[in-house]
Amino acid sequence: MNKHIITFSLITIFCLSYSFQLFAQKDDEKENLKLKMAQAWLSYNDEDYNGALRIYRELFKHYPENTQLNFRMGQCYIETNKMDSALSHLRIAIQDSTIKNEAYFLSGKAYQYMGDLDKAIEIFYKYKSKLTPKQNERDFVNVLLLQCLTAKNYISNPVNVKITNLGTNVNTKYVDACPSITADGKTIIFTSRRPENTGGKIDPYSEDYYDDIYISTYNEATKEWTLAKNIGTPVNTDTHDANMSISPDGSTIFIYKNAENVTKSGDIYYSTKKPTGEWDVPRALEGKYVNSTYFESS
């Protein structure tokens, strides 16, 4: 009798101990998932989409049905122009009522980028119908709808255009992007990631050189753009300094800056040209309605 009681007690203790271990293990798994998701989100906010995807893909092996994970993967795949992959994950995310509308909206963007404009328009109209008249998202959806409708019009009425490479004075084997031109068409500024950039540092996330702003002017005599020059300090620093736009008269440039312990995240700055032709120290755009603790960029 006593032997049976002792045996039963030992079994009970073992089962309880095993249950506690399972709960503890599950708690550890949840914390690890949260930590990895947070790490990936930081990479995403730094525009290191491939870095974020490396973390997400590893998590996906263990949590293939996690809707939040699939939603984030869908976001990253859209940013890396892999729309089929984005849609496959967003279809899972749509099953979650808490993010259904956002996932549905992102799938519309994926269809838009794939050129399936009719499907994108259908999704955007449905998404818009669920928004209240005062929701800010309505304006953004209206822009996307206008893009799709305009694209359909252009496709239906094609015109012949000639695209000409600006040549080696402007373009290099490195990233040359985000061009902006003055109203007279004679000055262009753009972002480039070259070894000779200010500080010569490499972004640990993208493994490219940090952004710097370059400038080139059009030579009427030779009909060519002059050799692009680094716009220099104080505009360019040893961190992210990317072009957003130049004013029509060329007197002001707007800059995206992202520097640790300086900007809140990515912030918008501006610099004006002095009478000497030099650029002034960039200043952050003032007012609480532009720069925030979130990511502002072009």
Helix content: 40-55%
Q: Helix count, per DSSP? A: 7
In CATH terms, what is the architecture of the largest domain? Alpha Horseshoe
Mean pLDDT: 85
Oligomer: single chain
- The count of DSSP E runs of length 2 or more, i.e. the number of strands, is 9
How many domains comprise the coordinates? 3
What is the assigned CATH homologous superfamily of the largest domain?
Tetratricopeptide repeat domain
**CATH topology tier name of the largest domain:** Serine Threonine Protein Phosphatase 5, Tetratricopeptide repeat
SSE series:
HHHHHHHEEEEEEEEE
| Unreliably modeled segments | 13-25
Distance between the termini: 79 Å
Proportion of residues in extended strands: 15-25%
Rg, Å, rounded: 26 Å
CATH C-level class of the largest domain: Mainly Alpha
**The biggest beta sheet, please?**
5 strands, antiparallel
Q: What overall geometry do the principal axes of the alpha carbons give? A: globular
Structural class: alpha+beta
